[in-house]
Amino acid sequence: MKMSKQFPLNALRVFEAVSRHLSFTKAGEELGLTQTAVSYQVKLLEDMLGEALFLRQPRRIHLTEAGSRLAPKVSEGFELLRAAVNEMQGVAEGTLIIHSTHTFASHWLARHLGIFQLDNPTIAVRLETSQQVIDFSKTEADVAIRVGTGEWPGLKSHFVLRNHFTPMLSPTLAETIGGVREPLDLVKLKIIDPSDPWWRIWFTAAGHPDAPLESTSRSRLGSQAVEAAAAIAGHGVAILRPDFYQDDVAMGRLIQPFPLTCEDGSHYWLAYPETRRHVGKIRAFREFLKKTLPSFDTNPTGKTG
């Protein structure tokens, strides 16, 4: 039997696009095909396999069980082909879109991305930040820096940094109560976001599980980076990852009154779709993190990620 009969590349390429967009119309726009041509290629593949790949409903389609099994393998196959071609050309080109938390972006990525771009001059970088966990099927992002356990279905993850925390504040604010000498001195001051579970974890570890956090004002600022800025301005005590603020400590803008730091089991991870692990620009970003972060992929939880 001829290879073209055994391996319908055109139909598989169309199927991959439709499974990604869950839309015949959007797949056609991406591939430069009419909706009729897209439907024909999908039907051709379904007839060859003897399986329905999509459930067709008014104004929407869904992958069947068979389609859900096939889609990630087909996507991975096309990514392998792209990676092989890039390797032959000796380049990893395009724009790498990185999605990150505000804090990691401002306190680590922004300071080190220049190294990545010097090492990879053919790759442009676009950095997007938010506190939301993105859905890779609904965004252009190639990789994400997430805080969590490193377990997300369908995603490959690599450990980046431990996420530990401790109270930090401006020395000027500390002086308003004659200095912070014991943990309960902190509740004499304004606590930035006392509803943050990190506070209770830290006070419990400090021997004060019943610290009266409920009596403090309930400011919520949305991200650690904004909370740190408020703490530097003297507006309250923030609970922060101290490694990100060593420059502020050195310059006298923040103090860490106690050496005690705690963790909640959530750390920083690099995540991206499992099917895209061989893409050149993603591989280059992995190598950059490995080069610049000794902790990268040390896998402290023992997970295979």
From TrEMBL:
Family designation: Belongs to the LysR transcriptional regulatory family.
A biological process term (GO) from this entry: DNA-templated transcription
Protein name: LysR family transcriptional regulator
Keywords, alphabetical: DNA-binding, Transcription, Transcription regulation
Gene Ontology molecular-function annotations: DNA-binding transcription factor activity; sequence-specific DNA binding
Keyword check for DNA-binding: yes
Domain HTH lysR-type: start-end pairs: 7-64
InterPro entries on file: LysR-type_TF_proteobact-type (IPR058163), LysR_HTH_N (IPR000847), LysR_subst-bd (IPR005119), WH-like_DNA-bd_sf (IPR036388), WH_DNA-bd_sf (IPR036390)
Signal peptide: none
Species for this entry: Rhizobium straminoryzae
Keyword Transcription regulation among record annotations: yes
